[in-house]
Design goal:
2 copies of one chain form a homodimer. Chain A is built from 5 helices and 3 strands. Chain A has helices at 23-31, 34-42, 50-56, 62-74, 96-127, and strands at 48-49, 78-83, 89-94. Chain A has a 3-stranded antiparallel beta sheet. The termini of chain A are far apart. Chain A binds chain B through residues 22-29, 31-32, 34, 37, 58-59, 73-77, 97, 100-101, 104-105, 107-109, 111-113, 115-123, 125-127, and chain B through 22-29, 31-32, 34, 37, 58-59, 73-77, 97, 100-101, 104-105, 107-109, 111-113, 115-123, 125-127. Chain A binds a DNA duplex (20 and 20 nucleotides) through residues 1-4, 14-15, 17, 33-35, 49-51, 61-67, 85-90.
Amino acid sequence: MGRSAGGTGVRRSMGDAFHSDCPARMVLDHVTSKWGVLILAALRKRDLRFFELRGRIEGVSEKMLSQTLRMLVRDGLIRRTVSPASPPQVSYGLTALGAALAEPLDTLLERVRTRARQVLAAQRAHDAR
Amino acid sequence: MGRSAGGTGVRRSMGDAFHSDCPARMVLDHVTSKWGVLILAALRKRDLRFFELRGRIEGVSEKMLSQTLRMLVRDGLIRRTVSPASPPQVSYGLTALGAALAEPLDTLLERVRTRARQVLAAQRAHDAR
DNA sequence: CAGCATCCTATTGGATACTG
DNA sequence: CAGTATCCAATAGGATGCTG
């Protein structure tokens, strides 16, 4: 059966889909979400503003950027700071909690980058049969 | 523009959606996929058979397990070994390439586990407003 | 045991347009 | 600049049933 009748109406925002039981699984999904990884890794070097993030993370839409940012801020992994100015200035940075998770993610990212070609080669070899 | 006309018929299996340009992004998505993380981390200790993986990774369906496994094998991150026996015996293990990526993933997983409660607390604090 | 095929829904996420 | 809202398409992924 499952939620054949559309569920009992629980309608949370994002990523809380079915983690009511295992919190770790929820955090993992937030953190390894398509844009979450890239955002967390990008913020390791220094705090960044919205448009800086958008520029650094290729292919992200404003919608997904703000949506993911909101989620990670709620999770306490990212801190949002607003400086009162005429052109609004908002910057995002890692909290201690966020930094602890961003570190292995950044390591992963580096390793993925240096090995992407090998994976491509493996795929071609595999498909050759 | 984009794929308004349904694309030119390119129909690959999984995860290759729109990574024709950036291989690293594709690898990242495979590796941080919902079940990919868990599979890679689970195989760090030792090789496991299909049913062992299914047992260790709570909530995974056979479909997603075999689908993700197939993808990771194609990527050259996981090695699939078949022992000829009357009840078929297939075991999965990390390749050197897979191990390099599984390590930071496992670190991430550990950190997520120990910090899940803090995230939950942050969410509650955030929602209180 | 170790899977694959089919059917179907929920979630992801892109495009576009608008706001403080 | 820093978003939000709406609409819509693609995909992830669960349920179920079958096979070597």
